[in-house]
Design goal:
4 strands, single chain, NCX_ion-bd_dom_sf, mainly alpha
């Protein structure tokens, strides 16, 4: 048991560290290649913050643990909104003024509904995984096109620019990129192995371990990014990290178990857990898009989100009590 805990903690620590180095190297390299900061923020940085989910989902799928992979995606999206955004809102009101975010949030809701349609029959097929991946590529193409052709001033662009490393020599950027690529799958394997051992010891299902320990662990990069964004008064970037990560999780990461290990899924994932993802995503859209001209998340919103997270975790563990 102690060895499994060590594997989980060590895997999580290396996963978060290597994801950060991967993003640092990739973003610095992209800047050196002359890519626009807004484009780097919408693609590389957003994908990088979801790198832990991606590698954990791939590892779990290759080991035949589809429910852990799907639980990781659904649980991460729930944790991003309720836990991560809830904790961030406690630091102070979070304002939203970016037009890009106001476009991305409905896209996040649409992607969530599409995933629900695919999971509803409790069977996740390779064709559905391919469709999700194609939708992700189409969305990325649209965002890239809009970022490179739009002439509107968006505060998210300035905030993204400030977060991308400057003056990093290309060889050093490539070194950190390679380090991240090597360590991410290794750390993901440690984390999954440790989580499986703990789950078996306590009699938890593959789905619940993905929804809880693994989901919260892989969401830590988003927590760090959101807290840093709010402390630097880069509110749009903080919300953007959550929205971008959730879109990436639903379209790209959720596609992996369908592509690698298609088959039957836990009925709870298709019901209880999907509806929780849909409800929290809709709540975020409601809070951000309909909170008046200021469009702010207040501290009390953060408290409510944290209470929802706590109640959901209690429900999950009670179901196995």
């Amino acid at each position: 048991m102690l060895f499994n805990i060590f594997l989980l903690v060590a895997g999580l620590a290396v996963l978060v560290w290597s994801a950060d180095k991967f993003v640092y190297g990739a973003a610095a390299f992209a800047r050196n290649m002359g890519l626009p900061p807004m484009l780097i923020g919408l693609t590389i940085v957003a994908m990088g913050s979801s790198a832990p989910e991606m590698f954990v989902a791939a590892t779990a799928s290759m080991e035949g643990m589809m429910d852990t992979a799907i639980g990781n995606v659904l649980g991460s999206n729930i944790a991003n909104i309720t836990l991560i955004l809830g904790l961030t809102a406690l630091l102070g009101a979070i304002g939203v003024s970016s037009q890009t975010l106001k476009r991305e949030i409905p896209l996040m809701l649409g992607a969530t509904v599409l995933a629900g349609v695919f999971l509803h029959d409790k069977l996740f097929t390779r064709t559905e995984g391919v469709i999700l991946l194609l939708m992700f590529l189409a969305l990325m193409a649209y965002l890239i096109w809009h970022a490179t052709t739009s002439k509107e001033q968006d505060p998210l662009a300035d905030e993204a620019d400030s977060e991308i490393p400057r003056d990093v020599p290309t060889p050093r950027a490539l070194m950190w990129l390679v380090v991240g690529i090597i360590l991410l799958p290794l750390a993901a394997n440690w984390m999954v192995e440790g989580a499986v051992g703990i789950a078996k010891f306590y009699g938890l299902s593959d789905l619940v371990i993905g929804l809880t320990i693994i989901a919260v662990g892989t969401s830590l990069p988003e927590l760090a990014a959101c807290v840093a964004g709010v402390l630097k008064k880069e509110d749009d970037l903080a919300i953007g990290n959550i929205v971008g990560s959730n879109i990436f999780n639903i379209l790209a990461v959720l596609a992996l178990p369908g592509l690698i290990a298609p088959g039957a899924i836990d009925a709870q994932a298709a019901g209880r857990d999907f509806y929780m993802v849909l409800a929290t995503s809709a709540a975020l859209a409601l809070l951000v898009l309909t909170t008046g001209r200021k469009r702010q998340l207040q501290r009390w919103h953060g408290v409510v989100l944290l209470l929802i997270f706590g109640a959901y975790q209690y429900l999950l563990f009670q179901s196995h009590a």
